[in-house]
Design brief:
Layout: E1 18-22, H1 26-31, H2 37-54, E2 62-69, H3 77-100, E3 104-108, H4 116-128, E4 136-143, H5 145-161, E5 189-192, E6 211-214, H6 224-235
Parallel strand pairs: 1-2, 1-5, 2-4, 3-4, 5-6
The structure holds farnesyl diphosphate.
């Protein structure tokens, strides 16, 4: 893995600083080839590599990817176990490369339900890349936007109950400090692949003013070139955040 800017890509002027991606379509991609769903997830992991590598050259400072949702536990035991094993192998394999190429890795989601070995690797990757100042890569595992808000509210309620926070001080600035994403800026652009036009519980609070792009391409076919085209289209949009045109 090189994480070097791809030579042909240029930073997109007025491009998004934080891009979040719902990587959908691995199963259909595999099915179209007569292969098991996990085959698609492995191909999807290779695309993660390519997109991470493309970010610095395209001016993207934050990349947040949806790897496993709180709802994905409903899939077959084989698929869930295969995905967990893929995450372990991915982190183990990429950890040194992240450091070498200055990628800071974070994980969001509820870790308590994850197996101990995976959690230990997540902690290790975060600790090892703590001083990296290049791309901020955030991987959402066992993440759900509603679950995140519920967990945040619980922590906030404890602070109120124990006198660290006054109820009248709870406002739009306070609540996000309790979210898993407290150190990240809000996403500017959310991309979903595979032709589905829904957000599936991803970054519900954080994406209130994000732009959305729903792309027909299945995730394992989503290349750095398509990514850079999507970013160019974003550059042409006018974001008004509720105000009127100047
Ligand atoms: C959705 O496609 C995809 C997932 C639930 C898993 C996403 C995981 C990866 C891209 C693998 C690697 C990730 C990392 C961080 C190593 P789907 O299976 O729901 O596709 P379908 O809608 O076609 O069935």
């Amino acid at each position: 893995m090189t994480y070097a800017p791809a030579a042909k890509e240029q930073p997109v002027s007025d491009g998004p600083r934080h891009v979040a991606i719902i990587m959908d379509g691995n199963g259909r991609w595999a099915q179209a080839r007569g292969r098991p769903r996990l085959f698609g997830h492995h191909a999807g992991a290779r695309r993660v590599r390519e997109i991470v590598e493309a970010c610095p050259g395209l001016g993207v400072d934050y990349l947040t990817i949806f790897a496993f949702s709180t709802e994905n536990w409903k899939r077959t035991q084989t698929e869930v176990a295969g995905l967990m094993s893929l995450f372990r192998r991915y982190i183990m394999k990429e950890m040194q490369e992240f450091v070498r190429y200055n990628v800071r890795v974070r994980f969001i989601g509820d870790r308590l339900r994850l197996e101990v070995k995976l959690r230990a690797l997540m902690d290790e990757a975060e600790a090892m890349t703590r001083d990296c100042s290049g791309l901020n890569l955030t991987i959402a595992i066992n993440y759900g936007g509603r679950d995140e808000v519920a967990r945040a509210t619980k922590r906030l309620a404890v602070d109120v109950a124990e006198g660290r926070l006054k109820p009248e001080d709870v406002d739009l600035e306070t609540l996000p400090r309790y979210l898993d994403t407290c150190v990240l800026p809000d996403p500017d652009l959310v991309i979903r692949t595979s032709g589905e036009a829904r957000i599936s519980n991803f970054l519900l609070w954080q994406s209130a003013y994000a732009e959305y792009e729903f792309i027909d391409t299945l995730w394992p076919d989503f290349s750095a070139r398509i990514f850079s085209e999507v970013l160019m289209q974003y550059g042409a949009r006018e974001r008004r955040f509720g105000t009127v045109r100047a």
